[in-house]
Every structure is written in C-alpha cells, then in structure tokens.
Write a structure and sequence with these properties.
Elements: E1 16-21, H1 36-50, E2 55-60, H2 68-73, H3 78-102, E3 107-111, E4 120-121, H4 124-132, E5 136-140, H5 150-160, E6 165-170, E7 189-193, H6 194-199, H7 207-215, E8 220-224, H8 230-236, E9 243-246, E10 251-252
Parallel strand pairs: 1-2, 1-6, 2-5, 3-4, 3-5, 6-8, 7-9
Antiparallel strand pairs: 7-10, 8-9
Helix pairs in contact: 1-3, 1-8, 5-7
Length: about 250
C-alpha cells in the first residue's frame, strides 16, 4: 500500500506581529536582572516564528531593572523615574538583540531616545523596511515620553507598523475573571471585548493601550510565555492557547 502524502503544514495566522514582553519575563527565578537561559529560550522561539516568514517586532519593558512608577512612589520625580525606566528597556533590548543574533536572526534596535552609538533612532518607515527584509525590530525606550507605559508603546508601535496583532506574553494562560492563583474557581475567557476589559478593569494592558487598540480595531492575544513553543502557537492558532481581546463577543474558554 502506497504511503499517504504528508499533511500540508498549516500557515501562520498572521504575517506581521508585535510581541510585547515584560521586563520581568527575563528574570526567570531571580528577583531582578536578566537570566541568560530565559533570554536564549525566547530568542530561539522568536527564531522559529521568523523562519516561517512572519515579520516580528518586539517591545520589552524594564521592570526587571527599574520601574518608573515604583520609583515615583518612593518620592522620586515621576518624569525622571520614567526616563530611568526607559533606559532600562534599552538594556533589555540590547540583551535580546545579542541573543537573537546568536541564533543568526538579524535584529535592529530602534530607540525613542536618541543614543546613536547603540541603537538606531525610531523611524517608522525604516522599521517597516527592516521587517520587510526579514529582520526582527526591537522598539526600545517606550514612546520616549514619561507617563506612558510600555503597553501603550506596544499599541502605538503596532499601529504605526501596521501589525495585525499584539501578542501579549504573560505568566498565565490568558485572562481570568479572578486571580487563578488565589481562586481555584476562576474562569478563563476565550474571547473578550475591549469594553469588557475597560469596564471590569481586567489586568490585560493599561487603559490607554486598550483604548488605542479599540479605536483602531487591533486585536490582542494574551498567552503564557512560560510554556515553551507558545509564541509559535500564538501565531498559528491564537484561540487555542490564550485569550483574544477584540471587537467580537465575550466567551468563556
């Protein structure tokens, strides 16, 4: 009996994505700083996605090094604290660039704060051109303005480069109606509307970021980064691994 032909490989759901990572995602089991094994794993997963022809941009936070909001609660001027947080994102961006290029994925860091010796200035058309050439682009220093989070920066950059989706990497497998670590009865949403996120004050992204996405109908996929392979799964079948925030209906998993 002749062998049956191999099943055709599924195509990625998206062609251009923006991956939002928190700075804390780089810490691993440490209390601060950057874990090289975690950095290497994230880089290898981004490589898997990039090799499928998906154009990948990233925004990364700086909470593993310094968080502006936390600094301001200790009496520091909020604007100064936020600028320090922006510089922390640049450290993370350079670390991630190094890890990606060790995987032979050519990467460009674009910073909203000029620092020509280590990063390109953020120029939208140049960023899009890098993506079209198959390079990964990391957007550092947030929006370049205090009082705006890296969530807002991710929403803004995603719309500027015409990304099809924001992939929001977290430590849980989606959005729940309560903290699943504290409440075993917590239920996970399969889909959510932007308005439900805002009305229920769900911990997805800050309200400015959610409002930007809602106004421009940009979907958000919230998924668990700690499970290896989930970045690829989020690109291939986002409804199967997390919660999709969009303009449809709210449904339970």
């Amino acid at each position: 009996m002749a062998d049956s032909p191999p099943a055709p490989q599924a195509s990625p759901r998206y062609k251009r994505v923006l991956l939002k990572l928190s700075g804390e995602a780089l810490m691993g089991e440490s209390k601060y700083g950057i874990s090289p094994p975690i950095l290497s794993r994230i880089a290898s997963e981004v490589k898997e996605v990039s090799q499928l022809g998906v154009q990948v941009a990233l925004v990364i936070g700086g909470g593993n090094i310094f968080r502006g909001v936390a600094g301001s609660t200790e009496g520091m001027d909020r604007a100064s604290a936020d600028y320090m947080g922006m510089l922390a994102t640049c450290i993370n961006a350079l670390a991630l660039q190094d890890a990606l290029e060790k995987e032979r994925i050519w990467t460009r860091v674009q910073s909203a704060i000029k620092m020509e010796q280590i990063a390109e200035p953020y120029i939208r058309r140049r960023a899009v051109r890098h993506l079209e050439k198959g390079r990964v682009v990391i957007f550092a220093a947030g929006t370049g303005n205090p009082y705006f989070t890296t969530d807002t920066a991710a929403s803004l950059r995603a719309m500027e480069i015409n990304a099809e989706v924001i992939l929001k990497a977290t430590k849980v497998d989606g959005v729940y109606d309560a903290d699943p670590k504290k409440n075993p009865q917590a239920r996970r949403y399969r889909t959510l509307t932007y308005m439900d996120v805002l009305k229920q004050n769900l911990n997805v992204m800050d309200s400015t970021a959610i409002s930007l996405c809602m106004d421009n109908k940009l979907p958000i996929v919230v998924f668990d980064l700690t499970l290896r392979g989930n970045i690829l799964r989020a690109v291939m079948d986002p409804g199967g691994i997390g919660t999709i925030v969009g303009s449809g209906e709210t449904c339970w998993a």
